[in-house]
Every structure is written in C-alpha cells, then in structure tokens.
Amino acid sequence: MLIRRIDATRLDDCLALAAGRKWSAEPHKWGLLFEIGDVYGIDDPDGGLAGCVVCTSYGTRLSGIGMMLVAEKFGRQGLGGQLMKHAMAEAGTESTWLTATTYGQPLYEKLGFRSIGDSYIYRGEFRPPASGASRPASTKDMAAIAALDAEVFGAPRPEVLGRLPVFTEQLRVIEGTEGIRGYAAAWRNVDDTVIGPVVADNETMAKNLISDLAAGISTTVRLDLDDTHPELREWVEGLGIARGMRTEVMVHGASLPGDRKRLFLPLSVATG
Ligand SMILES: CC(C)(COP(=O)(O)OP(=O)(O)OC[C@H]1O[C@@H](n2cnc3c(N)ncnc32)[C@H](O)[C@@H]1OP(=O)(O)O)[C@@H](O)C(=O)NCCC(=O)NCCS
C-alpha cells in the first residue's frame, strides 16, 4: 500500500482514524502539525485513511514523531512499521524522538528505538497561585525566545516558534539581568489547555511560568511531564492532579541534543 504525504485537506480523514482508535478529535493540534510537520498517510481502498504518521523535523539534527495511527481493521499487517520507516527515511535526522503507547512500543523497539524514560499525562483543575515573576511576551521578544529555545532544544525549530504567537493563547517570559531566561506557552486543545513548551533555567522558574499561565486559564489543564523533573511531578501531584496515561519516551540514533535539563515541558507529545 502506497505511502504518500498528505495535506490539511485530509484533516477529516485523520480525525476519523484517531476516533477509530478512541483518540479525541484535536483539529487545532492537527492544524499545527500540518503546518510544521510532514504528515504521511496510506489510503484505505474503501475511503478514508488506513494509517498515518506525523514527522516534524528540526533541521538535520532531530525529528519528532507522533500521531501514529493504523485503523484496527488494518492492524498487525505491517502498515505501522512501514509508515515509521518511511517517515524516518524521509526526515534523515541524526536522532528521532517519540513517546510510545503500549501498542507502539514493541514496534518501535524492533525498529531500533531505545527507551530513555517515561512521560505521564496530568490533566485536571490546576490553580497554583500566580507568581508574578513573568510577563506576557511581545513580538520584540521572539528573537530572544528563538535563541534560548535553540540552545535548550538543541535543534532549530523556526516553524514552531514562528507560529507560537498565533497558535497559543498565552506566551510568557521571565527575564534575568542578561535578557530572557525562560519562556512558556499555553494552547487550547479540545476541552483542555495544554501548557508547553516550558523552557527555564531551573525548577523555580519553571513553576513560576506554569503558575502564571495557569492563572489565565479557565479550562482544565494538561501537562505532559517526563521523568527528567521528578520534583515538578511531585509539585503538580501535590496540587491535586493525579497521573493519567503513561507513555515511554524513546530515541533512535544519536542522543538528544541541547540542554534538556532546562526543557520542562514539550510543545506536545507529538512534536517534542
Ligand atoms: C501502534 C500501531 C500504529 C501499530 O500499527 P500496526 O500497523 O498494527 O503495526 P505493525 O503491523 O507494523 O506492527 C505491529 C505488530 O504486528 C506484527 N506484524 C507485522 N506484520 C505482521 C503480519 N503480516 N502478520 C502478523 N503480525 C505482523 C509486528 O511484528 C508487530 O508485532 P509486535 O506488536 O509483537 O511488535 C497501531 O496498533 C495503532 O494505531 N494503535 C492505536 C494508536 C496508538 O497507540 N498508536 C501508537 C502511538 S505511539
């Protein structure tokens, strides 16, 4: 079955595929993925899609893979493996990052991915007191945010950063004596507001950014916290949000670039 790159005209087919696997319909997120990533699909001869995957490349250094979906009726026939191999070959990056469900993990292990930790979804009413340490970002801050992000993320993602001001509902920064030291964003996804990315010098700064964003959120909040910052997980749990679904964080190829200790939350688990 032929794998080809698809565009946003196939959004409804992607949503139908996701619904078939009991994933929620996330049109806003898919809209961004079609803009910043390469979406590959396999047509179902009876209409719609048999499978899809999204690969977002950050230069030649890193790519993130997400939204890996194969319709149940086509399951265990090799489509998932073919989609992954195709996306990785097209990206050709030194490293590939993803977070795997229990369905996907064995397949990714066979393809040479190794586990580097875990990630949990935290979702609920989240009302930490605002810190007042951050301020809303302005267009004048975008160059400094991009420079900080490149240092921490370790690979250029101008397409992501260029879209943050319109894609997100809030974008906040914290300044130090030498300019911007941290930034964080919040964006709407169906009934939740997702907080991420969060880049900060340390845990206190990350908490301040997250708290200030939360003060401006009226919906439930979603945080995808990996195990590189256990204190942040404890803080969130202490504020009454329980751990939800677990995924395995996996990497293929070279180790992740950048200064990951300063990356507290991803933009999304589909992109890194
Ligand atoms: C994960 C998912 C994409 C895998 O898709 P898939 O097309 O079934 O994947 P493949 O067929 O390539 O591989 C799945 C398994 O089938 C096996 N397989 C492949 N071809 C086969 C064949 N012809 N006959 C029997 N088994 C086969 C593979 O070896 C693999 O085995 P394993 O699970 O024991 O490792 C699919 O299960 C899915 O959409 N799940 C729900 C959404 C999800 O969790 N996505 C992953 C997000 S990280």
TrEMBL record:
What is the E.C. number? 2.3.1.-
What is the superkingdom listed in this entry's lineage? Bacteria
Per its record, how is this protein called by name?
A: GNAT family N-acetyltransferase
Q: Which UniProt keywords apply?
A: Acyltransferase, Transferase
PROSITE patterns per UniProt: GNAT
Signal sequence, start to end: none
State the top-level EC class.
Answer: transferase
Q: Which PANTHER family match?
A: BLL4206 PROTEIN (PTHR47237:SF2), SLL0310 PROTEIN (PTHR47237)
* Domain annotation N-acetyltransferase: ranges: 1-131
